[in-house]
Each structure stands twice: as structure tokens, then as C-alpha cells.
Amino acid sequence: DKGVWKKYDWTVKVDVDAVFIPARLKQHLDKLRVPAGAKVYLENVNYRFKFMGALEIVSREALELFHEQSHTCIRGKHEGGEDFFMKGCMDAIGVDHMIDYDLLHDKYAANEGPCTDGWAVAYH
To answer: What's the superkingdom here (predicted)?
Structure first.
């Protein structure tokens, strides 16, 4: 851990098989009006647990809290992918979330959209 993420307001994890359009993310963040210093992650798709790992967006403050307290989440049996674990852990340690179900078009969530829609941040 070199702490590079601490230099940025947001950390974005994108799957290698996803298409990510960074300029659109800024538009989405502007529309959400996330309060300065908010400890939040963005729910990105209206499917299952609402935080698909193809696109994970977490504020610096939320990631800092996760970095400090994630050890408290590593107890017992863990089932699911890293996205399921991370969302559950962030919820448990008090990280809030905001909703933008237009961030991700994901074939696994049955909400594939044309990549020409001009609004989604990522396609998977």
C-alpha cells in the first residue's frame, strides 16, 4: 500500500473486460452532488446487492475508513466475490452509499444497453 489513492477524491476499480469512460463519471458525480468529505460508495446497478464489481466507485474518506477497519469484517466464512464482501464490510463499518443505477450497463445484471447511449460510465 503506497497510499496513492489518498491523493484523489475517488477511487474507481474497473474490471479488465469492462469499457470505462472517465469523462462521464465526472458528469454523474456532479449530478449526485456528493457532499464534501462524505464517506460513500456508489450503488451502480439495480440488480441483486446493487454493487457490481465491474465498476466500484468509492470516495477517499470511505476508502480510508475501509482501510482502517476492514480487519473487523474478516471474521467467519465469506461467500461471494470481492464486491459482495466490500459492500457488506463498508455497510458494517458505517460507510454510507448513494444510488446511481445508470453508472453501469452490465450483461450479468440483464441491463445491457447500447454503448452509444451517451450516459453510462461503464459497459460490461
So the answer is: Eukaryota
